[in-house]
Amino acid sequence: MPGRVLVGVKRVIDYAVKIRVKPDNSGVVTDGVKHSMNPFCEIAVEEAVKLKEKKLIKEVVAVSCGPQQSQETIRTALAMGADRGIHVEVSGKDYENLGPLQVSKILAALAKKEEAQLIILGKQAIDDDCNQTGQMTAALLDWPQGTFASEVSLEENQIKVVREIDGGLETIRINTPAVLTADLRLNTPRYATLPNIMKAKKKKIANVKPADLGVDLTSRLEVLRVDEPPQREAGMKVETVEDLVGKLKDAGKV
Amino acid sequence: MANPLKGEVIRLYKTLLYLGREYPKGAAYFRERLKSAFMKNKDETDPEKIKQLVARGDHVIKELEALYFLRKYRAMKKRYYEPEN
C-alpha cells in the first residue's frame, strides 16, 4: 500500500489571462501577469488528498520547481490538503530553460530521496502543453505509468487506472510504485479557501537546490521564436444570397 | 452585534473578499457590491436574523466556488477536447 505520494504542481500564467507575446518574439509576457496553479495540477493534488482522506495513503508531498513565487503554488497545494511541500529552487536562465526533461530528473531524484510510492502529476501544463513530464519521470524511475487518468482505484499492490484515450476509455492495472497523470474528468478540485490557506501557513516547505539532487539542468532545446497565432480575419455581412455568391466568387471559393 | 456572531460575520466578509479577487467582472466590482450588501444589514441585532444572513453568505461562497470551477472546467474542455458532436 503506497505510503507517500509526491504531487508535482506547476506555477503557470492563469488560464483566464489573455496571453501577449513579447515585442522581440523571444517569449510571452510574464511580468505583472496573474499566475496560478496549472488546472491539471489542481486535479492531481485533489486526487492525492482524496486518497489520503480515504486512508489509502499516508502523506501527500507537494513539489514545485521554479523561482521564489513557486512557493505560492505550493501553499495552495498545502491549503488543499497536502501535508508538506518541497520547493526546488530554479531561477533566472535555468528557469527559462526548465522543461519536462529537467523536471522529470528532479522528480525522479526526489522520489528516490523521499521514498515515494506514487507520483501524481497533471497530464500537461497549459503554458507549454508538453504532456511529457509524467512519462519521462516514469521512464527515468523505470516505474509503470497510468497517464490521462480519469479514474484511479488503489488495490493491494496495484493500481487500476481508467485512461481517456482517442475513441473512448482504456482500463489498465499497473504495479506500484507508479506515476499517474491526471486528466480533466478525474475529479473536481476543492477550492483553497481563506481559512485553509491560513491553516496551511503552519505546514513546512523545504527548500532544495537541483545540485543537491545531483540534477543537471542543461537544456537540449532552444526556443528560436515565439509568435501569436494568425489573426482571424473580420467577417463580412451580406444582404442577399446573390451578394453572398458574388463575394464567394470574388474570393475564388466558388 | 452579539460577540460570537461578530467573529462569524468578519470571517464571512474576509472569505468572500478573498473569493472576489477572481470574480469575472473584476475584484473592484465585487468588493463594492460585497461592502454595500454587508452595510445594508449592519444595524441588525436579532441573533436569529444574523445567523440567517451568515448562512446566506455561506451559500454565496458555495455558488462562487461552483461558478469558478465551471468556468475553468468549460475553458479546459473547450481548449483540450474534441467537441462531442
Automatic annotation (TrEMBL), chain A:
GO CC terms in record: electron transfer flavoprotein complex; mitochondrial matrix
SMART domains referenced in this protein's UniProt entry, alphabetically: ETF (SM00893)
Pfam family of the protein (one): ETF
Signal sequence bounds: none
Residue ranges constituting the Electron transfer flavoprotein alpha/beta-subunit N-terminal domain according to the UniProt record: 25-217
Keyword Mitochondrion assigned: yes
UniProt keyword list: Electron transport, Mitochondrion, Transport
SUPFAM superfamilies referenced in this protein's UniProt entry, alphabetically: Adenine nucleotide alpha hydrolases-like
PROSITE patterns named among the record's database cross-references: ETF_BETA
Name listed for the protein in its UniProt record: Electron transfer flavoprotein subunit beta
Automatic annotation (TrEMBL), chain B:
Record's GO cellular component terms: mitochondrion
Biological process (GO), any one: negative regulation of oxidative phosphorylation
Parts forming coiled coils: none
One Pfam match: Complex1_LYR
Record-annotated Complex 1 LYR protein domain positions: 8-60
Top-level lineage group: Eukaryota
TM ranges: none
Assigned protein family: Belongs to the complex I LYR family.
Official protein name in the record: LYR motif containing 5a
Organism classification: Eukaryota, Metazoa, Chordata, Craniata, Vertebrata
